[in-house]
Amino acid sequence: MGFKVAVLGASGGIGQPLSLLLKMNSYVDALSLYDVVGTPGVGADVGHIDSPAKVEAFVGDMNDAAKSEAALEKALQGVHLAVIPAGVPRKPGMTRDDLFNINAGIVAGLAKGIAKTCPDAWVAIISNPVNSTVPIVAEVFKAAGTHDPKKVLGVTKLDVVRAKAFIGQITGTDPREVDIPVVGGHAGVTILPLLSQSKPAVDISQEDAKKLTQRIQNAGTEVVEAKAGKGSATLSMAYAAAAFAESCLKAMAGESGVTDYAYVESSVVDGLSFFASKVQLGPGGIEKIEGLGDLNDYERESLEGLKSELAGSIKKGVEFVNK
């Protein structure tokens, strides 16, 4: 069985390579591309790839809300999975919170379109700050009466992908064979790799474990600075998002044993209504949110340390919709 997938923000730095990767995915039989600029060109380009998925492109207008709403509605017809990379990227010196005022409104508008047109779709949110944009989508859906927390997923897989890459370098292991939980949120100190649970084990000092944790937490900034004002992590993000989308599609197709990491509505940590951890996926969305397992002292301290920032980001997203 094939599925219809929409990429909302398909013309951007993440959206274009993500559209390419999804066009190549055997679970996708229809690919719907939406953005406020440039989508016909992306659609024409991706449409020349010799894979079966049918490509349609829809373009809104930054200066015409009604036109954008109509195009979005067409793009979302019959969609099973909507992936949202829309918004502006980080630039040098910007924090994810600096992005909030721009991206929050964009994500809320797209969520309203999903609630209206394909309320049963799964939604994978990439747009930063994810710690706030996922609660925004949930609140928009609640207001529309369409909220299903099992199908609203913040894409934090890039944190896992980076941790696997860095641990693979340290241990001399194929990164694809590394199993490392990364929990918490998707910004700075809220990203918590549980290095004590890594397989293979990472045999490094506590000081080096702290440095590795900080590298994983700051990896996005590493890319922003390396690109010197010309973008943020787009290629690795597209790779991670495409892999996460495949997990969703496998689960939709009824494959058993599908797990991944996502930032979701959760009760894993007291006082945090959203949290990233390992989830088991089934045809109807999240079937189980797994616990954190045994943490070492540094990880327990780090978990305590991230709570206030993550709680503040969640509150900011909720209040944006309900102001």
Features:
10 helices, alpha/beta, about 325 residues, 6-stranded parallel β-sheet
**Helix-and-strand structural type:** alpha/beta
Radius of gyration: 19 Å
Level of helix content? 40-55%
Q: Can you summarize the main beta sheet?
A: 6 strands, parallel
* Helical stretch tally: 10
Spatial sequence of strands, sheet with the most strands? 3-2-1-4-5-6
Per DSSP, what share of the residues sits in E-state strands of 2 or more residues?
15-25%
Shape from CA axes?
globular
Distance between the termini: 42 Å
| E-strand count | 11
The mean pLDDT is: 96
pLDDT < 50 runs, ≥5 residues: none
Instruction: Report the order of strands and helices.
Output: EHEHEHEHEHEHEEHHHEEEH
Explain how this protein is built.
With 323 residues, this protein is an alpha/beta fold. Helix content is 44%, strand content 18%. It is built from ten helices and eleven strands. The strands form three sheets. A six-stranded parallel beta sheet has the order 3-2-1-4-5-6, sandwiched between helices. Strands 9-10-11 form a three-stranded antiparallel beta sheet. A two-stranded antiparallel sheet has the order 7-8. α1 crosses α9 and α4 runs parallel beside α5. The longest helix is centred in the last third of the chain and has 26 residues. It is globular and about 55 Å long. It starts with a strand and ends with a helix.
